[in-house]
Fold this sequence. Notes:
638 residues; alpha+beta; Penicillin binding protein transpeptidase fold; Beta-lactamase; Immunoglobulin-like; 3 domains; five-stranded antiparallel β-sheet; 19 helices
Amino acid sequence: MLPALAWALDRAFPPPMARFENAAREVTARDGRTLSVWPAAGGVWRLRTRPDDVPPHLLALLIAAEDRRFHAHPGVDPLALARAAAQWVRAGRVVSGGSTISMQAARLLEPRPRNLRSKVIEIARALQLEWRHGKAGVLEIWLTLAPQGGNLEGMRAGALAWFGRPAQALDASEAALLVALARRPEALRPDRHPEAARRARDAVLLARAPDIASAAEISLAGEVPTRRLPLPRHAPHFARDGATTSPARVTATTSPARVTATTSPARVTATTLDLDLQRATEAIAREALARLPERVSLAILVTDLRTRETRALVGGDWMNPTRAGALDLTRAVRSPGSTLKPLVYALAFETGVVTPETLMEDLPRRFGDYAPENFDRAFQGRLRIADALRQSLNQPAVALLNEVGPLRLASVMKAGGAVPRLPPGAEPSLPLALGGVGITLRELVGLYARLGDGGAGLIERRAANLASAILVQPIPGGGPAGIAWKTGTSWGGRDAWAIGMDQRHVVGIWVGRPDGTPMPNATGARLALPLLGQVFERLPPAPRQGFAPRPLNAGLAPSTDALRLLFPPPRATLPEAGRVVLRAAGGQRPLTFLVDGAPLSTDPARREASWVPPGPGFYRITVLDADGAAARTELRVR
């Protein structure tokens, strides 16, 4: 009869778990350490704290100081209550409350006036909590809600605010201070009442005597902290936005809290960010921002080359309104300047138009109405293709894009996650080579990660490695060796870029005014490149520096590179226009191109063919090699 009545009362009056479930939002680094914290509703810093989040000696101190028979009673200790009642009768006032940790947990969940009626309710709730959640669940409630002074609640929040490190790293004296604070959080705040806090801490340490505490140990405990530290707020733009996709690969925790009665998820977001690298990158950004003009900001992104996971992210000068600090500038759409040139050269290597040793004329030249000039308004004459890329010359890059085709570059960008942003109604054209397109730092770093990862399916491995290897050169002003890097400056100095990569990481830097105002004399080499070197100096060295071109089928059994169409890409749509250049890679030459089964006239030594669509419609493009292999795709002409 009694068990049935207890079950009915439990279901009719469940414990109020709202305060426990209203936890702060926490973002963690890849190793589980706290990266950033956002307060719970009401501005309370309340971090969910499980028993295994704190060191064993903190639990031992808590039980010794508050409830020595914790593991022996069902939530209420009759002996402690009897002792408290006897002291009340003798003294005429409350000397000790006889509260167990379970009763304290009930009071933390549902604060009430301190009177006899409240004590009866606490007793009932304590029994209910232990029945529902067991000893571990009760401890989790207490460890999460125990006041720590001001708007701090819980052992993890207290450890971060008073000692600046995780609760798991606290020593015995530090743990004792947090346990003591929970008794009288305002009267024992160490920043306001340091001497009272020290005495209370020592009393908690002595509560375990003679097990581990002694006068000698207490004398070595040291002073209590005298100021409250801010809770972690690293990568604030990302932490504020919460779960996102590319490039940080965030995973929101969806498993319920360890306390079995609650069904709400712990408000924790796990990320791939590296806490130590994030701190170092933020320090670099702070120093740089102090030297930059008032309204100029910056963004930094560090990504793993292979996994594309983000390791560090600085989105701007957080909450500085003169620098639009609330905006995540890694997401801002800007002109990339010359940073797309390596992709143009890689595509030219892939199609066989040139090699790094090909000689080319850097001379004035018009492409219809378009006449590009170099940054210094001078021309270099005859030089190698590799030198043209290293010097970031404009005319050679445009000439190569004219051979490769702007639509091919736009297709590679789109396949790499960087959809080209062009004026309404505009089609990809030759200015793409010089930054005539909108792109974000996140997208640009993603493209370089694919380039450095052997093309990653976008570009032939050999061609991607050749372009990457050309970019390997010393970083002016300092930085580790073996970094492949490229700078970029958009028209009017609005955007200054530097992108670099080794065999492990890609680092992207953007400097500019968030409102797009020109910055006179600003260049990527002057503003962004020094920061690139500083970030790489703080990265672990790559296992193999540099980008030595590797065989096309490295690690595979010898075989012919598979025949495939480079252009048009699958299911492409082209505007009704003039000549289209069909391009293929791999296979055994000579190649034969067919449109709807009809062969086109081609040079047997080349891997491309020219074709003029007769009008709008759908066309089937096929390429055959000398061994009979075939590659096909469908094309629509509007």
